[in-house]
Design a protein that fits this description.
The chain is α/β, with parallel strands linked by helices. The protein is about 45% helix and about 15% strand. It has a 9-stranded mixed beta sheet, with helices on both faces. The chain binds S-adenosylmethionine.
């Protein structure tokens, strides 16, 4: 990795993955959505508050809604780049839903990819969905990487463009393929300059691109101060300036970085756009005392879709 110092804060950032995975496992166990694979990555899940579970439901379902729009538009000959993938199980869920010719590329710090590799190798149900034509899975040096036909898990530091380029080349990312890049709770951990460089690089490198970003937003208020303080207490600063901006401003920033179009919604809008029957089902799962807290959470997270080229230009919340 070039010119990047490894800090104690990086360890705290890496720990946010454990948190996200445990929250997802908890919501899955309570029946919010189905995920047959999350249990391999989080062995225990303390029960979280209902508003947290509903927040995660909106996050996962909102992302899925746009992932399916992407797949509808390009068929299955495409690539997905999961930035700061953590222990996300999307690859396996998509394998079950659409066995596809997707080249699925997962990037995270080497510590995280090494742990993910280890878990995949130890669990047949995970490993059997990662096969190459010759039935072999190649493991990279030190066990921190995994390369198979259609699945690549590569350690890299997203703050270093050289590292990102190397990782994408190792994963056989094709510049001309329809590409979906995912950033789910990742950009806030990058300082403004590397975050901008990463996003501008993606916009320049992939002319047929949809970028899906789920991050905090509008944190320039008391709620934001409390959130930042809670994270700081765990040794983890919100490094970026991304999270301070309102959704429309986040979209404008992406257009300024080279995307042809970008739209963003707070999670209240995403929640209302989810199918009525599933939303009603989820509302019956747990009593919600802190309705106002859920509204605050929804107002402080946003989903943004930014596109290059015509293929994905009509991706929209209600498309
Ligand atoms: C909150 S977790 C989210 C994980 C996953 N995207 C999800 O939503 O379940 C943030 C992830 O971003 C990764 N990350 C943060 N900064 C990174 C960097 N500079 N390089 C690579 N990965 C990074 C962390 O290691 C962690 O796995």
């Amino acid at each position: 990795m070039d010119n990047i110092m490894w800090t104690a804060e990086d360890e705290a950032i890496i720990a946010t993955n454990t948190d996200a995975t445990e929250c997802k496992r908890c919501a899955v166990e309570l029946g919010y959505w189905k995920d047959d694979y999350i249990g391999f990555f989080a062995k225990r899940a303390e029960r979280k508050a209902p508003e947290i579970n509903r927040g995660y439901y909106a996050r996962v379902k909102g992302m899925e809604m746009f992932i399916h729009q992407f797949l509808e538009r390009c068929g299955t000959k495409c690539q997905i780049i999961n930035l700061g993938c953590g222990f996300d199980t999307l690859y396996w869920r998509l394998e079950d839903a659409t066995r596809a010719g997707i080249n699925f590329i997962e990037l995270d710090f080497p510590t995280v990819t090494a742990k993910k590799c280890h878990i995949i190798k130890r669990n047949k149900q995970l490993l059997e969905k990662i096969t190459r034509e010759d039935g072999e899975v190649a493991l990279g040096a030190g066990g921190g990487e995994l390369h198979a036909d259609g699945y690549h898990l590569v350690g890299c530091d997203l703050r270093s463009l050289g590292d990102v380029r190397r990782a994408l080349a190792a994963a056989r990312a094709a510049p001309d393929a329809p590409t979906l890049a995912l950033a789910e709770c990742v950009l806030v951990y990058l300082r403004p300059e590397p975050a901008r460089a990463l996003l501008a690089h993606l916009a320049a490198a992939f002319p047929r691109l949809a970028l899906l970003v789920y991050e905090q937003c509008s944190l320039d208020d008391t709620f934001g101060e409390v959130m930042a303080r809670n994270l700081a207490a765990r040794g983890c600063a919100l490094a970026g300036d991304w999270q301070r901006a309102a959704p429309a401003e986040q979209a404008a920033r992406l257009r300024a970085l080279g995307f042809d179009a970008a739209r963003a919604w707070d999670m209240g809008a995403v929640w209302r756009a989810l199918p009525d029957d599933d939303r009603a089902r989820v509302e019956r799962l747990e009593m919600l005392d802190e309705r106002e807290l859920l509204q605050q959470l929804h107002a402080h997270y946003a989903l943004t879709v930014a596109t290059r080229g015509d293929l994905f230009a009509d991706m929209d919340l209600n498309a």
